[in-house]
Structure formats: structure tokens, C-alpha cells
Amino acid sequence: MSMGMTGSANTWTIAAARDALRKGEISAVDLTMSCLTAIDASDALNAFVHKTPELALDQARAADARIASGNAPDLCGIPLGIKDVFCTKGVPSQAASNILKGFVPEYESTVTAKLFGAGAVMLGKLNMDEFAMGSATESSCYGPAVNPWKVDDVLRTPGGSSGGSAAAVAADLCLGATGTDTGGSIRQPAAFTGTVGIKPTYGRVSRWGIVAYASSLDQAGPMGKSVRDLAIMLGAMAGHDAKDSTSADLAVPDFEAALTGDIRGKKIGIPAEYRIEGIPAEIDALWAQGREMLRDAGAEIVDISLPHAKYALPAYYVIAPAEASSNLARYDGVRYGHRAALAAGDGITDMYEKTRAEGFGPETQRRIMVGTYVLSAGFYDAYYNRARKVRALIKRDFEQAFAAGIDAILAPITPTSAFGLGEMDKASPVEVYLNDVFTVTANLAGLPGVAVPMGLDSKGLPMGLQLLGRPWDEAGLLNHAYVLERAAGFVAKPDKWW
Amino acid sequence: MSIDIDTARKVAKLARIRVEEAALPKLAEQLSGILGFMEQLNEVDVTGIEPMVSVTPMRLARRADVVTDGNQQSAVLANAPDAREGFFAVPKVVE
């Protein structure tokens, strides 16, 4: 057995499993079985919402044959969980919405096709907020996913929208998972579960076959147990795709090779505007520790200003619902998904209205209607165009910071550690949206952002920090994250209670 | 900007989402809260700033105007709630 490979195989990192598979120390079938066994015992977490054990074992057998023939790619035989937002051929894919109940795609998303092409094994589909709209996985039609981190009687959220992915990785149900991040949906759940996740630069990973929420913000990325695993997965997920017109025609670097651990002389920006009022002292202290760790590694810490950052959240909550209202117009009960039962004499408009009222949950309905309002005649300039102008200013702030020599920006991810399920029930929509205050800027500016676990708070819950990088510099960004990961040395795991 | 009940009803209609009359006051209140939050954007001086159209400065890719796919009628219809004789079926549209 390789170094550090104690415990059952489902607890391994992708890198460790890859090496063990290549050395013949374990078969892909046994590795997959180890995960399937863990999944079967994890229903209390509600992370996997569609399990695909037969498909997984078929893929694992094919992977074993490929590994035996030599030259298998890094992900060959690696069992992954796939967020329900990815269309997977022949497997239910409903973005946690009742309006897509029964939908079984006839096609494969580009990301999953690339992962499967690289030999990855799909264990099943993972829970999420409906249409990726939320920060707690509580708007899911499957019911909430549960955070494996439990320190008292309270069941906590694993965050959202990629909460099922984060819970599954943290609970060692899979070796890695796919997520999507429109306003923080990879980074925030990673922070709440002590896992890592990267939102790549907008355009780095194809959006084709991913159920759309806000198309100018949506970006898929990997979630995992180590920065190295993110590098391995991202390498397989990224790349140009003619089927996504916003996909960048750029070469994909070797992200893993970029993990040198050397960031001497790099400039790390600390944005003054992220020191928001009411931020818990623990998050602030963590941020200071992160700065020290990067300084100790030879980086230069530089105070920077992103003057428009405070307007990112309201701009996001104009732009994202506007795009959602357009994207979700396709759910009309005609071509796929749910159609309401109609009364005698109901016409086609009744069909649309009843279908959408029954199929969409409350938060999705709200965002569609907000988007409809801000795009409607008379308000388009006042809300939507103004938000797009503010977005241009937010992006310009980052461009100026990078032009001044900043290599990466260090910031908090969340205002708190994981909160209890149901705790936000009485909060207004706007209070819930405040969870996204630190994360939406990266999406508005299209920048890559990576979440790294740093430690436990006084309650014993994980906390993380994010690094934001220059556009297309995921390689450099992951190397910074790698340094932070090694310095923080976060190895804690949730006690198994489920 | 406060959303009244009539505006909430109109927005629901435009969005093609059936909202019962009894649910309109709460909807109006929530939409007002969200739009009130957006009012902060009015503090920003956006004089001379163009609205962002693309996060990456790039020209959208074009391709040759040729058929690249097709002959998949059964796959296209496979998920339809109601498909008949090779078509999507809906309630009567024209009186």
C-alpha cells in the first residue's frame, strides 16, 4: 500500500487511488464497490438522489480492462458523483426540480462525456438546490442534503447549491464530484464541509448539457478532497467545445504539473471591501492566518481596493434572475418534464401556468418573477441595464488589481460556518441572499476561484478561505491553493453518525 | 420601488406562473423586498459605462450554416408528456 492509504478505499484521494490502480494494488471494481457500500449506508445524508450502481460497475469493469492494457488516463477507474444538473444519458437528470420529474436525457453533457471518456465511473446523481438556486440545498425537490459535520443535535446544511456534491465528498461516498458555481455554489458548500472546490474561469469548461440557470455566470468545476485532485479532475473536464458558443478555444494546461508549491515573489491582494460589518471574529482571524501562511511561503501581501465589490450582490440578484427567467421559459409542459393535469376547457395558457406553478418550487418561482419584472418594458434600463453597467465596473476593479501586479486575491468565502437546516426558514429572501456576499464577485467578473479548508471554528465546524485568480490562470491559482492547503494542514474528518 | 398586488399579478401572468389571489400579497411583499435591495445600485455612478455583454472579450464563434444533426425524431419526442404521430401534442390553440 502507498503512503497514507489507510482506511477503506472510498476515503482515498483521487491521486492516491490513481497510483494504487496503476500499481495493481486495487481494482476499479473493488474501489467502486467500496464507494457503493458507503453510499448504501448514507441515506441519512440525502446526498445521492439517483444511484447508478449497475452503470458504475460496468464502467469500473471497462476501466480495469483499460488499466490492464496500459496508458490509462488519470481518472480511469475513479468513482465520482455527478451533480443532478448535468444531463446524463439514460439516467434521470432533473436539477432537483419537480418540473423535470421523469426526464431522462437522450444525450450526455460535455463534462460527463469527457469524464467518462477519461475512464471515470459514475456512482449516481447528487442533490442540489432546485436549478442551482440556493445556498443550503433546501430548495431541492428531493428534500435537503445533510452536512456530515454534526457537532450537536442540529442537522446542518452542507451549503448549496452543490450541497449534495460537498456532502458526498466530505462523507467519503465518492472520491470526487462535479459541481456548478453561478454565485458561489461550489466554493460555499466546500467551505461548509471542509472540502476543496474550484470554479474555473468562465468559458474554461463547457456548459453544454448542463441545465442552465444564469448562462453568463454558470460554470462547472470539480469538488474533492485535495487541491491535487481538483487539478486532475479539472484537466479532464476543461477544454474547448464547439457546442458551447462561450467555450474558450484555449489549450488546457497540465494543472497537476503546476503544483510546485513555490509562490515566492507572488503578490496576494487583500481586498479592503471584504471586511464587512458584522463578520464573525473567527472568520476574520482565519483570514489573517491565511495571509500569514502565504507570507511565510514567500508571497507578498498587498492591500487592494475593489471599490464596487459591495454592489456585487444586488447586481447579481438582478442579472441572475433575469437570465433565469429567460432560460426557464423552456419549461412549458410541451417537450419534456412535468405537465399539469388540465380541466375541461383549459387552453394552452392554462397549461403553461398550471404546469409552471406545480413544477417550480417557491424560490425558483420568485427568481423567475423577479427576472421577468426587471426585464419588463419600462424597467429594463432601470434594473437590468444598470446592473450590467455595475457588473462592468466590478470586472474593471479586478482588471486594475491584476494590472497592478496582483497574482491572486485571498478572501473569506462565507459570513458564517454551516447553519442549521431550517434556520433560514423565517428569513426574508434578501437575508438568505446575503450568504453569497463574498462569492458572487468572481462570477460577475468571470474569474476562477478556489475554496480551501483552513480549520475548525469554536463549534467544531469547518471553515475555509477562497483564492481568486487571473482569468485563465487556474494553474497558478491551484498552486497558490496548494500552498495554503499544505500550510493549513486541514485533515479533520466528520465523525460518522449517519 | 414597491410592488403592489396588481403588479405582482401582472408579473406572474407575464412569467406564465399561476398564482392564486390569496398568495399575491405575500408575493408582492417579497418582490418589493428584493427590488428594494436592488435600489443600492442607484448609488453607483455609471456615467459613460457600457453594459457588459460578454464576460470574456470575445466574438461569439460562428459555424458554417449546414445541417450537422437530425433524423432523431424518436429521441426528440422521448420525453414529451404527450406526443402523437411524430408531433408534440398540446391543448387546442386556435378556436
Automatic annotation (TrEMBL), chain A:
The active site is at K83 (charge relay system), S161 (charge relay system), S185 (acyl-ester intermediate). It is an enzyme of class 6 (ligase). Residues 31-478 form the Amidase domain. One of its GO terms (biological process) is translation. Pfam families: Amidase (PF01425). It catalyses: L-glutamyl-tRNA(Gln) + L-glutamine + ATP + H2O = L-glutaminyl-tRNA(Gln) + L-glutamate + ADP + phosphate + H(+). SUPFAM superfamilies: Amidase signature (AS) enzymes. Allows the formation of correctly charged Gln-tRNA(Gln) through the transamidation of misacylated Glu-tRNA(Gln) in organisms which lack glutaminyl-tRNA synthetase. The reaction takes place in the presence of glutamine and ATP through an activated gamma-phospho-Glu-tRNA(Gln). Belongs to the amidase family. GatA subfamily. HAMAP family: GatA. This is Glutamyl-tRNA(Gln) amidotransferase subunit A.
From TrEMBL, chain B:
GO terms for molecular function: ATP binding; glutaminyl-tRNA synthase (glutamine-hydrolyzing) activity. It comes from Cypionkella aquatica. It catalyses: L-aspartyl-tRNA(Asn) + L-glutamine + ATP + H2O = L-asparaginyl-tRNA(Asn) + L-glutamate + ADP + phosphate + 2 H(+); L-glutamyl-tRNA(Gln) + L-glutamine + ATP + H2O = L-glutaminyl-tRNA(Gln) + L-glutamate + ADP + phosphate + H(+). Allows the formation of correctly charged Asn-tRNA(Asn) or Gln-tRNA(Gln) through the transamidation of misacylated Asp-tRNA(Asn) or Glu-tRNA(Gln) in organisms which lack either or both of asparaginyl-tRNA or glutaminyl-tRNA synthetases. The reaction takes place in the presence of glutamine and ATP through an activated phospho-Asp-tRNA(Asn) or phospho-Glu-tRNA(Gln). HAMAP family: GatC (MF_00122). Heterotrimer of A, B and C subunits. Its EC number is 6.3.5.-. It comes from the Bacteria. GO terms for biological process: glutaminyl-tRNAGln biosynthesis via transamidation; regulation of translational fidelity; translation. Belongs to the GatC family. Keywords: ATP-binding, Ligase, Nucleotide-binding, Protein biosynthesis. Pfam families: GatC. InterPro entries: Asp/Glu-ADT_sf_sub_c, GatC. This is Aspartyl/glutamyl-tRNA(Asn/Gln) amidotransferase subunit C.
